[in-house]
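We modelled the chain as a single entity of 82 amino acids. Its sequence is:
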Amino acid sequence: MPLSLQRGRVTAIVEEHEGLVRLEVDGRACVAYPDLTGPVAVDDEVLVNVQARQLELGSGGFDVLYANLTRGSGSRPPRERT
């Protein structure tokens, strides 16, 4: 089964902890791991993994932020070896 991604917009930041952000994307509960995806803010356009919710896997009802299309990952490209 292919990965189920949906495009959306961050509508609220609910809670922020070190390494974890609870947010809403188009009004649906979502979690983000900013160390992996970069920072996230209201109105950012994002890709969200919705597969666990669609399959009713019991992930706590949260979608997972897959990529921030507005800000990118915030990571630096790897250095080229010489």
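As a brief sanity check on the tokenised model: The chain has a mean pLDDT of 87. The first strand starts at residue 5 and ends at 17.
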